[in-house]
Write a structure and sequence with these properties.
By secondary structure, the chain is mainly α. The protein is built from four helices and no strands. The protein has one domain. Helix content is 85%, strand content 0%. α1 runs antiparallel to α2, α2 packs antiparallel against α3 and α3 packs antiparallel against α4. Bound molecules: protoporphyrin IX containing FE. Protoporphyrin IX containing FE (HEM) binds next to α1, α2, α3 and α4.
Length: 156
């Protein structure tokens, strides 16, 4: 029989695969492809089109990952882990989630117009900065994933 904690864990992982997998695809495939284009206008158009579609989808997967994670924390009463250094991956998960929530729901809508202007004025350096930011976030996500899978399965 499937209980609510198993269901929450499954939804947590499903949402993570969509969200972090998408970040990996944008970082490792779309951005290098865009930066290899000879026309910077084409490059920005490619990046913007992919990012816009992905942004709509992660507005579902990011909150779902967080809701399922918080539900597991509440149901298994794991709050004390946030203060225990052996469970560093718990605050790492929460911190990473908060950063993405802020980016997707606050910064992106707020700074969208300014970003478009900057991309028109300096497309090459905007793409370079985007590539750096995505690489940093993907590295943090990979580290968190490694720590969380190992930690959730008994590795200290
Ligand atoms: C609000 C944010 C989040 C909360 C409260 C949260 C909470 C949790 C909890 C309670 C567990 C179960 C731990 C256990 O069974 O011992 C878990 C598992 C896990 N979480 Fe999160 N999480 C959050 C976000 C994230 C993020 C952003 C990532 C990835 C970057 C992540 C990756 C994982 C992974 C890989 C597992 C292990 C799944 C398994 O193998 O069973 N979580 N999370």
């Amino acid at each position: 029989m499937i209980d609510d904690i198993i269901l929450a864990r499954s939804l947590h992982v499903l949402a993570l695969v969509h969200w972090i997998g998408g970040v990996a695809f944008v970082t490792l495939v779309v951005l290098p492809l865009a930066r290899s284009r000879s026309s910077t206008t084409d490059a920005m158009a490619l990046f913007n089109n992919v990012e816009r579609r992905f942004a709509v989808q992660v507005r579902v997967s990011i909150p779902l990952a967080g809701a399922a994670g918080l539900w597991m924390t509440y149901r298994m009463d794991l709050w004390e882990r946030f203060a225990d250094p052996r469970f560093w991956w718990m605050p790492a998960m929460l911190g990473l989630w908060l950063v993405f929530m802020l980016m997707v729901f606050v910064l992106e809508p707020l700074l969208h117009a300014r970003f478009e202007q900057l991309a028109l004025r300096e497309p090459a350096s905007t793409l370079r900065r985007m590539a750096r930011l995505h690489s940093l976030l993907l590295s943090l996500a990979a580290l968190t994933l490694l720590g969380a899978v190992a930690g959730a399965h008994g590795f200290y």
